[in-house]
Amino acid sequence: MQLDKAKKRIAKQVKKGFHGYPLVSLEYFGNTPDSATEVVISFTEEEGAEPQKQSFVSSGDAREDETIQSTLLKVIERAGAKTVTEVDGVSIFPS
User: Taking Cα atoms as reference points, which of 38, 28, 42 lies closest to residue 84?
Assistant: First the structure.
C-alpha cells in the first residue's frame, strides 16, 4: 500500500471522532519534535479495560515509513475499531 494512501485512511478514521469501543490510539515518540522514531498503538476493547499496547520502531521517521503506516492501518481495520485517536505531534522520550 502506498504511504500517502495509508496516512490518509488513518487520518480519516481519526477525524471521525469518538464512536465507542473498541478504541485504537496512536502516539508517536522521538528524541526531537521533528522526528518520530517510534509509534505506540494501544487497543482498548471496552470502557475501563486495560489497553493492549504494541510499539513499532523505525530507523527514520515512523510517520513516513510505508511499512509501519500500512501495518497501523491493518491493525485498525482488523481490530474493528469504532474510534481511532492520535496524540498530536511527537512526544519526547524522557531523559
Answer: 42
User: How many structural domains comprise the chain?
Assistant: 1
Helix (H, G, I), strand (E, B) or coil at 95: coil
> Is 12 inside a domain boundary?
yes
Beta carbons of 68 and 10 less than 8 angstroms apart: no
Give the pTM.
0.92
pLDDT tens column, 15-49: 999 999 999 999 999 999 999 999 999 999 999 99
Beta carbons of 15 and 77 less than 8 angstroms apart: no
DSSP 33-87: TTB--EEEEEEE-STTPPPEEEEEE-SS-GGG-HHHHHHHHHHHHHHT-SEEEEE
Compute the distance between CA of residue 79 and CA of residue 22 in angstroms, rounded to an integer. 7
- Pick from 34, 30, 37, 28: which is nearest to 10 by CA? 28
Residue 75 lies in a domain: yes
